[in-house]
Amino acid sequence: MEHAEVLTRYVGHFVDELAASGLSDVVISPGSRSTPLAMSFVHHSDIKEWILIDERSAAFFALGIAKETKRPVALVCTSGTAAANYFPALVEAYYSRIPLIVLTADRPHELRDVGAPQAIEQIKMFGDYVKWFHEMALPEATDSMLNYVRRAASRAVQTAKQDVCGPVHLNFPFREPLVPDFTLDNIWGERFERNFSPYYNGKKQLSDSELKTLIHYVKKERGILVVGPQTDERLAAAMIQLAEHWHMPILADPLSQLRTGEHRKSHIIEGYDAFLRDEMIREQLKPDFIIRFGAMPISKAYLFYLQENKDIPQFIVEPYSGYREPAGNPTHMIYSDPVYFCNQLINIPRALENDTTWLNKWQKMNEITKHHLKTDISNDLTEGNATRTVMEELPNDSILFVGNSMAIRDVDTFLLTNSKSIRVLANRGANGIDGVVSSSMGAATSRRRVTLLIGDLSFYHDLNGLLAAKHYHLDITIVLMNNNGGGIFSFLPQSQDSKHFELLFGTPLHIDFKHAVQMYGGTYCIPETIGSLREELNKSYKRTGLTVIEVQTNRKDNSIWHRNKWRAIHEDILNTGW
């Protein structure tokens, strides 16, 4: 059998098994050594290819697709530093538990470590940031080797998506010539009934004896349910039922998927970040126990609240495994399906389940906070007012993608409960400002309208991501909060150092983004009032393609505005007599 046929069948069986295992999307960055993989993916009718030149952007784009679809997405690149550009996105995928299948082409073994061009050490190059690494064998087309590549493909998909999801890495050494021969018969081989190695993964739940150990803690009066960043769409209904049954507040992070939707929301407390900033209020809300679902909430005020209550029992529910407790408090880790766990708790009798005093206190503070957040007679475009306007104008059945630093914190403040179907996504695994534009573009491949709220530094960091909108005609509205630098640092102690602040932290860009947006074929505008922002948002949602709405603000004024708003909330709450 000639080399071209061996190569074609070997790679063809691998790609076909990925499809059989449920893979439907691959993001390819062009290169020579990856030719067998790239061409085979494009030739396969069951897999949609996305071509992005910049590997760094491509990896974050794949991350966005996987976030939205909750399915593994493959990445393909050539040898050398191309693969190194994947690293930031793989770190994010690892910490945010997103399934990616990284397929790097490589020089064959005889061309490694001999000075051959575009050859670097790719073995386990991503270290512990992948769940599984495998160096693929050189192509052969014997029955045993074709079974081998199918097994590797099936295992890659399974490993990426089972239990705690994450990226896997397979490295493919290829000898030249590299072009497959698609004139051959039956290049995909014979599929098995489903896939090569199907697996069955049941849900975890606590035993009766384990539940009994919790009764002592959860029978107390002042319990809190907390839902951090998570994407399980089943959880909202189960959490609401538990909270209503036990008369407990739910502190819902903006990425919890609980603030929006058709479920009941009377027990959801979304304003906690604002009122927990006050130490006196935190003292009045000392809990008896906390049960948390999902990752750690974004709110720094909630972190202070935890750190001041190290003595109270805390339970963290994880569906499989993992340890996410940055406060350093003593913690009971509960490894159980969150919905099963909620249902089990509902059946535990509580003598105080008819007492609503504790819940009412949280609800009243939340209502006071929401009143202040909704009320502002000014038509000025502060970052807070602008974010609130964006939250109000989000279309139903759409995606809100949020940048880090100030953007996600303003969404935490101004995303109030509503009945719209809004999926809220962000790259909060490593919390970096890189790759956010590309990830939002990946989410937009679902063809649901995407609104990206992002700061100017993060937008600048990933301008290459705009190419996907132009190339694939993606419908996305980007609200660019431009305070000419790093606005988040104005809230930190560094802001008091007038000598070094602007150079090291403020880092103004002084960039006219209009030219970059027009280069990628987008519509660009700068509204000057809340009314014009609202108008431009609604215009953007009626047009196709890329729209960038730049909101220009002042970092110092923004800091003062936020602090005044928090102060008014705290004074109003404390004046109620608590």
Automatic annotation (TrEMBL):
Residue ranges constituting the Thiamine pyrophosphate enzyme TPP-binding domain according to the UniProt record: 437-551
Q: Which UniProt keywords apply?
A: Magnesium, Manganese, Menaquinone biosynthesis, Metal-binding, Thiamine pyrophosphate, Transferase
Which residues does the UniProt record annotate as the domain Menaquinone biosynthesis protein MenD middle?
196-402
Per UniProt, residues of the Thiamine pyrophosphate enzyme N-terminal TPP-binding domain are: 13-124
Recorded hits in SUPFAM superfamilies, A to Z, give: DHS-like NAD/FAD-binding domain (SSF52467), Thiamin diphosphate-binding fold (THDP-binding) (SSF52518)
InterPro entries, alphabetized:
DHS-like_NAD/FAD-binding_dom (IPR029035), MenaQ_synth_MenD (IPR004433), MenD_middle (IPR032264), THDP-binding (IPR029061), Thiamin_PyroP_enz_TPP-bd_dom (IPR012001), TPP_enzyme_TPP-bd (IPR011766)
Any one GO biological process: menaquinone biosynthetic process
Note the superkingdom of the native organism.
Answer: Bacteria
Reported EC number(s) for this entry are 2.2.1.9
Query: What does the record's cofactor remark say about binding?
Result: Binds 1 thiamine pyrophosphate per subunit.
Which pathway is this protein engaged in? Quinol/quinone metabolism; menaquinone biosynthesis; Quinol/quinone metabolism; 1,4-dihydroxy-2-naphthoate biosynthesis; 1,4-dihydroxy-2-naphthoate from chorismate: step 2/7
Q: Which reaction does it catalyse?
A: isochorismate + 2-oxoglutarate + H(+) = 5-enolpyruvoyl-6-hydroxy-2-succinyl-cyclohex-3-ene-1-carboxylate + CO2
The EC category is: transferase
**Essential cofactor(s):** thiamine diphosphate; Mg(2+); Mn(2+)
Tell me which NCBIfam families the record gives.
Answer: menD
Provide the assembly information: Homodimer.
Task: Report the sequence similarity comment from the record.
Answer: Belongs to the TPP enzyme family. MenD subfamily.
* Protein name from the UniProt record: 2-succinyl-5-enolpyruvyl-6-hydroxy-3-cyclohexene-1-carboxylate synthase
Taxonomy of origin reads: Bacteria, Bacillati, Bacillota, Bacilli, Bacillales
